[in-house]
Design a protein that fits this description.
4-stranded mixed beta sheet; globular; 5-stranded antiparallel beta sheet; single chain; Rossmann fold; 9 helices; alpha/beta; Hypothetical Protein Yjia, Chain: A,domain 2; about 300 residues; about 20% strand
Length: about 300
């Protein structure tokens, strides 16, 4: 940030590859990647150690942002933010897929997790609003007001949100002259000054999910990759990874959320990444062997 404020970002990825850490590390500043697995499963371990290490630095950060996995319990993570008397819990920001959140909330495998995350929010960032019309967004706003009545709702495109909103989720909203559009009001509460008493390992939040790793990817034809991605069932909720496309000089970052997926070339001169895909879905998602077979079939058909 040009204002010289010291930030620390703790990155987590629910999968075998910490791809999110690789992506954030490509930006300026220092990134601390948490151990693989859900952050709230690391209570008393990786997350706590990372926070202690940060606060023990000669010049500790002024703001710490924790990016939890999509299956985490954000309230439990936020409770850890007061392990040091110099730490103050600021707020929980939940990113909402405007086109898909209601379907996921009704899903028998992940619905409870989705509703729990919404209820924990101090701020909802309703993303992908460019893919819905005004009537659909208004209907979604009413539904979110019931699911998270205390959280303001900020509409966004491409998750483009003013940084100061993320760093002041309880009290700070952008003015009319700034990017973003706030709908609803909600209300916040004072910062929690205690640590929850029961931090026992609880993996119920993860019981409705499956993950698969397609490792050591060969160079892929763009059409073969497209055929594979388009054929994935709705039980695949998320995919991310690095791929090398035939005829391209640099690898690409692949990101998939729901049915939408994108490719973005890595900057020239970037360190060569490990070519692999991590897929996350419900227990009905095809297993790793089936996914590998599907990719091989797509390559053979080109």
């Amino acid at each position: 940030e040009p204002d010289g404020v010291r930030y620390a970002v703790l990155v987590n990825d629910f999968g075998d590859l910490n791809i999110d850490a690789d992506l954030v590390a490509s930006h300026s500043g220092e990134t601390i990647a948490l151990a693989n697995g859900c952050v709230c499963c690391s209570i008393g371990d990786s997350l706590v150690d990372a926070l202690i290490d940060l606060m023990a630095r000669p010049t500790p950060p002024e703001h710490i942002l924790i990016e939890a996995s999509g299956v985490a319990d954000p309230r439990r993570i936020a409770d850890i933010a007061v392990i040091d008397p110099d730490l103050l819990r600021d707020g929980i920001v939940v990113l909402v897929d405007a086109a898909d959140v209601r379907r996921l909330a009704d899903d028998r495998h992940v619905g409870e997790t989705v509703l729990r995350q919404l209820a924990a929010a101090d701020l909802l960032v309703v993303n992908k609003t460019d893919r819905s019309d005004v009537a659909a967004l208004d209907a979604l706003d009413g539904w979110l007001a019931g699911a998270a009545p205390r959280a303001p709702r900020l509409r966004a495109r491409h998750a483009d949100v003013p940084v100061r909103v993320l760093l002041g989720a309880r009290t700070t909203m952008p003015s009319a002259s700034q990017p973003g559009h706030v709908v609803g009001h909600g209300h916040g509460h004072g910062a929690d000054r205690h640590v929850a008493g029961d931090h026992a390992h609880d993996d119920l939040h993860e019981s409705g999910f499956r993950r698969a790793l397609i490792d050591d990817l060969p160079t892929l034809d763009r059409h073969a990759l497209s055929a594979f991605m388009e054929a994935l069932p709705d039980s695949v909720l998320r995919a991310k990874g690095f791929v090398q496309l035939a005829g391209e000089a640099t690898p690409f970052v692949l990101q998939r959320v729901g049915r939408s997926w994108t490719l973005k070339a890595l900057p020239a001169g970037s360190a060569p990444p490990h070519l692999a895909l991590v897929l996350i879905g419900t227990v009905e998602m095809p297993d790793e062997a089936a996914l590998r077979t599907a990719l091989a079939r797509a390559r053979q058909q080109i």
